[in-house]
């Protein structure tokens, strides 16, 4: 016998119950603990494979599963995206962090069937002022986006605010890769754009849970995907890219970040 799984949707967008949001928050706490663990240890001289080992070990010790592992064939437990890698970098024993690098560590967790997703940037040793400002701006984009997460408003208001802010700082925003609904699965509707127009997109209904994760490029927004592994996304011009990510729930009276 199987229990019917009831998922409420508005259009194609799943709307979570209070209990489901509680579950995603619990998953998010583990996700945050894993990111904290990485943050305390990441340094010049380690390989990105070492980060993968930390993420696998800490996640499983806490009774959870790393969502990326085996997801659509992804071979590792975490994405590590360094300098000109925009996203989906694959941890590698040969890739050694060095002074001056910036790196995104993107952690996603499954706990009791609930998915959470968040990422942070780390600066390795002394980093140039240019790259530090890029990292800071990408982080500020999260706050700018959150300020537009308001019930019964279109999600394009959020994406537009992020785009305008990043552009105002002299950066570009990747258009074809964006955020997503999350919680009952890794990637759910809606696709979340950070190059959107005000007044467009899905209405943010209380119970919607999605990611804010704009990819901010120092140079052009163009990119290409590594032909050999089919995953790693690089900036076309070789300039650095930065990204932070949170999982956020829309509430009747605003929002709650579920990954902090
Ligand atoms: N964590 C990424 C995101 O923000 C997804 C990575 S897909 C994977 O959506 F397969 F590489 F894990
Ligand atoms: Co995500």
In this entry the ligands are:
2-amino-4-trifluoromethylsulfanyl-butyric acid, cobalt (II) ion
Query: In percent terms, what proportion of residues is strand?
Result: 25-35%
Uncertain residue segments: none
Helicity, as a percent range: 25-40%
Care to count the β-strands? 17
H and E order = EEHHEEEEEHHEEEEEEEEEE
- Specify the structural class: alpha+beta
* Main sheet record: 4 strands, antiparallel
Overall body shape: globular
List its traits.
260 residues, alpha+beta, 27% strand, three-stranded antiparallel sheet, binds 2-amino-4-trifluoromethylsulfanyl-butyric acid, binds cobalt (II) ion, 17 strands
Structural account:
With 260 residues, this protein is of the alpha+beta class. The protein contains 4 helices and 17 strands. The protein has helices at 18-41, 48-61, 129-146, 156-168, and strands at 8-10, 13-15, 65-66, 79-82, 85-87, 102-111, 114-123, 172-173, 179-181, 188-192, 209-212, 215-217, 223-225, 233-235, 241-243, 246-251, 254-257. The strands form 6 sheets. Strands 3, 4, 6 and 7 form a 4-stranded antiparallel sheet that branches. It has a 3-stranded antiparallel sheet with strand order 5-14-13, with no helix packed on it. It has a 3-stranded antiparallel sheet with strand order 8-12-15, with helices on one face. α1 (18-41) packs across α2. Cobalt (II) ion (CO) binds at residues 117, 179-180, 211, 213, 245.
Task: Outline the fold blueprint.
Elements: E1 8-10, E2 13-15, H1 18-41, H2 48-61, E3 65-66, E4 79-82, E5 85-87, E6 102-111, E7 114-123, H3 129-146, H4 156-168, E8 172-173, E9 179-181, E10 188-192, E11 209-212, E12 215-217, E13 223-225, E14 233-235, E15 241-243, E16 246-251, E17 254-257
Antiparallel strand pairs: 1-2, 3-6, 4-6, 5-14, 6-7, 8-12, 9-10, 11-16, 12-15, 13-14, 16-17
The structure holds 2-amino-4-trifluoromethylsulfanyl-butyric acid (MF3) and cobalt (II) ion.
Cobalt (II) ion is lined by residues 117, 179-180, 211, 213, 245.
């Amino acid at each position: 016998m199987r229990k019917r799984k009831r998922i409420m949707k508005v259009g194609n967008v799943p709307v979570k119950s209070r209990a489901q949001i509680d579950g995603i928050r619990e998953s998010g706490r583990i996700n945050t603990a894993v990111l904290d663990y990485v943050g305390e240890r990441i340094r010049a001289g380690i390989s990105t494979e070492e980060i993968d080992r930390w993420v696998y070990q800490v996640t499983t010790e806490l009774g959870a599963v790393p969502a990326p592992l085996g997801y659509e064939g992804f071979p590792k437990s975490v994405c590590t995206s360094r300098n000109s890698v925009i996203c989906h970098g694959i941890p590698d024993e040969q890739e050694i962090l060095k002074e001056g690098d910036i790196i995104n560590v993107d952690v996603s967790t499954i706990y009791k069937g609930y998915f959470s997703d968040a990422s942070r940037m780390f600066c390795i040793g002394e980093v140039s002022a240019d790259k530090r400002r890029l990292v800071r701006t990408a982080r500020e984009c999260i706050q700018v986006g959150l300020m537009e997460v308001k019930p019964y408003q279109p999600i394009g208001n959020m994406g537009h605010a992020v785009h305008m802010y990043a552009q105002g700082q002299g950066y570009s925003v990747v258009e074809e890769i964006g955020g997503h609904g999350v919680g009952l699965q890794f990637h759910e509707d809606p696709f979340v754009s950070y190059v959107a127009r005000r007044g467009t997109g899905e209405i943010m209904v209380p119970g919607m849970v999605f990611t804010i994760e704009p990819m901010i490029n120092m140079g052009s927004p163009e990119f290409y995907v590594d032909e050999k592994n089919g995953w790693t996304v690089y900036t076309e011009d070789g300039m650095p890219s930065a990204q932070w990510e949170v999982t956020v729930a829309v509430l009747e009276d605003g929002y709650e970040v579920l990954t902090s």
